[in-house]
Amino acid sequence: MIAYREILRAAGLRSNAIEGVTASQIEASYTATPLTSADLGSPDFPYSSVVDSLISVLGKIVRAYAFVQNHPFRNFNLSQTASIAHNAVIPSTNSVGYPIVGVYGAIRNASSGAVMTNMNEQIIDTIVSNTDSFLKGTYDYFAITGDRLKHTAQNAVIDVCTFSDTVIRTGIAADGDAPIPDACYDIAVAGLISTLFIDDSYVNQAQAASVYFENQLQEIKSGAASFMPAPNFITSPTQAVS
Question: What are the residue ranges spanned by the domains of the chain?
Fold first, then answer.
């Protein structure tokens, strides 16, 4: 897993947003754990705005692979819904209230964990409504009809990807790990750098970072799990504010 501070350090240094006017001051800010507004930020890029940008970038990365069925990166954000009764509305959050993003994964029998089989809803209705109640639960079948889940189990759950702005923000403050694989490190750094420029300062760098970021998002959406390295980004020679 990639620590949030690693992404913030790399992008902050190249956007002149690491606090300090001497080498020792910048070193102290750069290596601070966790990074706070005393270590990261500038008049152009206040700490909170950098955090907001990072959350946005991570959201784009997670959503890129969350919408790809069976993408291996989905495991970094995978959880399950609460139990869903037959013909109940599919929830928009997982079992602890985190927003669901992307396509659904496996539908499972909530009791056994067995992966259920997609089946014609008329067959499911017949099994569920049969007066011989022993038939219900004998077959692990499901069907999604509109926003509802029909199934033959007592209850079912769905494997889902989630992304919560609140959880990310808390994780950054606690010096936690970003919910993306190591392979996405360059993508996250480039995405953040692409948002950190003012007027004509470092426009070329921001454009290069943006092109790389968008291209890699497209690669993810195509199912890729490894990527070309990011271009080299320059570090500002201008002293940061103290």
Answer: 2-73+163-221, 77-162
Q: Which residue shows structure tokens 């948002």?
A: 195
Is the distance from CB of 179 to CB of 185 less than 8 angstroms?
Answer: no
Model pLDDT for residues 219-233, shown as the tens digit of each residue: 999 999 999 999 887
Q: For residue 233, which of 7, 29, 24, 38 has the smallest C-alpha distance?
A: 7
Measured between alpha carbons, how far is 135 from 22 in angstroms, rounded to an integer? 75
Instruction: Strand 88-89: give its sheet, edge to edge.
Output: 88-89, 148-151, 141-145, 117-118
In 70-190, at which residue ranges do the beta strands (DSSP E only) sit?
A: 78-80, 88-89, 100-101, 107-109, 117-118, 141-145, 148-151, 156-162, 177-178
- Give phi and psi for 161, each to the nearest 5: -95, 145
Q: Look up the pTM and report it.
A: 0.90
Each residue's pLDDT tens digit, 24-44: 999 999 999 999 999 999 888
Q: Residue 28 and residue 58: Cα distance in Å, rounded? A: 26
Please provide the size of the chain in residues.
242
